[in-house]
Amino acid sequence: MIETVASVGLAIDERLTIFKNRIQPEKMTGNEKRICIVTGIHGDELEGQYVCYELNRILREQKERVKGIVDIYPAMNPLGVDSITRGVPGFDIDMNRIFPGSEEGAVTEHIATQIMEDISGADFCVDIHASNIFLREILQVRMSEGTAEQLLPYAKLLNTDFIWVHGAATVLESTLAHGLNTCGVPTVVVEMGVGMRITKSYGLRLTEGILCLMKRLGIWEGETIAPKEPMTSDNRKIGLVHANTAGIFLPSMEHQGIVRAGERIGEILNPLDGTVLETVVSPVEGMIFTLREYPVVSNGSLIARVLGGEGE
Fold first, then answer.
1. 77 in the Ramachandran plot: left (φ > 0), alpha (ψ -120 to 50) or beta?
2. pTM of the entire structure?
3. Do the beta carbons of residue 248 and residue 268 sit within 8 Å?
4. Measured CA angle at 43 (ends 63, 240), to 5 deg
5. How far is the C-alpha of 220 from the C-alpha of 241, rounded, in Å?
6. Which of 5, 7, 88, 209 is 20 to 30 Å from 221 at the Cα level?
């Protein structure tokens, strides 16, 4: 059942309208659990679109196995998705920096409040993001240290490669996930792939993981897989690799590859004179879970993140 979450008037007789698809049992008892699947807050992050499609398809084809309420929000920033713009076009604002919003605020703040109200009361929320056009990420869950104890058992069901528990200082209080966790809706953030692209394998894996989570919550009675056991950031050093010069980055390691400390990850080249400006090496031994996708780099550009072994 397609429902309107929020709708506001724009210039030239246009409207900004956010929709969701609600899937629920034909006979309701009033005690059903509810899960919300959210994506498209950033208009250039399209990985979640395929997850929404797959979930809708599976639940439609096996509707008799749905025992709870599933709300699927494929485009929280529809103007951004339509124009391939990260923020909300025309407002020059990052939508994931204005929650919980304000009923009396500007258009985007008003929309943010309506989104919060619509999701409020849910038993769980999965907020799906992609990377930007510059970096490729493995399939991962991100959460704050303050919510890890509550969220980790559920996050491990999502069939991801990695769970990154951030320090409190890195968590932005104006994000949707932080706002929902604060108001009592357990919410995890999933990040994967690269901006403006869809990585089908990641989408299929996450869909299977969401079905596992739904089964744990009592929302789904269909078949599920045994989810992959993810690595976590606990007691692991994360090596950050930045460019020390400007040029063209050419990787010599594969994304998700294993690298030794001091081993070459790639080179920064100067196309003008045919020289190598910098050999980029890993500071730790481990797995490359973030790798530069866009070749042009400046001094300080992030090249890679490497997940070190336990106890490093």
1. beta
2. 0.96
3. yes
4. 105
5. 42
6. 5
**Residue 291: which H helix or E strand, with range?**
strand 286-292
Geometric angle at alpha carbon 42, from 38 and 44, rounded to 5°: 120
Instruction: With beta carbons less than 8 A apart as the criterion, state whether 21 and 109 touch.
Output: no
Q: 23 φ, ψ to 5°?
A: -115, 125
| Per-residue pLDDT reduced to its tens digit, 247-298 | 999 999 999 999 999 999 999 999 999 999 999 999 999 999 999 999 999 9
Which residues, other chains included, contact 285 with Cβ-Cβ below 8 Å and sequence gap of 6+?
258, 259, 260, 261, 306, 308, 309, 312
Q: Which two tokens stand for residue 165?
A: 């528990």
CB–CB of 144/127 below 8 Å? Answer: no
Three-state secondary-structure class, residue 193: strand
Confidence (pLDDT) at 311: 58
Tell me how far apart the alpha carbons of residues 162 and 140 are, in angstroms, rounded to a whole number.
5
The pLDDT of residue 312 is: 53
User: What local confidence, expressed as pLDDT, does residue 167 receive?
Assistant: 76
> In the chain, where does the domain assigned CATH 3.40.630.10 lie?
2-231
**CATH 2.40.50.100 domain span(s) along the chain:** 235-310
Least Cα distance to 138 among 260, 256, 258 occurs for 256
Please tell me whether residue 109 adopts helix, strand or coil conformation: helix
**Nearest Cα to Cα of residue 198 among 240, 134, 136, 149:** 136
Low-confidence ranges of the chain (pLDDT < 70): 168-171, 311-312
H helix runs in the chain, sequence order? 47-61, 78-83, 107-119, 145-155, 176-182, 200-217
CATH 2.40.50.100 is held by the domain 235-310: yes
CATH 3.40.630.10 fits 2-231, yes or no: yes
Question: d(Cα 166, Cα 305) in Å, to the nearest integer?
Answer: 14
Compute the distance between CA of residue 148 and CA of residue 166 in angstroms, rounded to an integer: 9
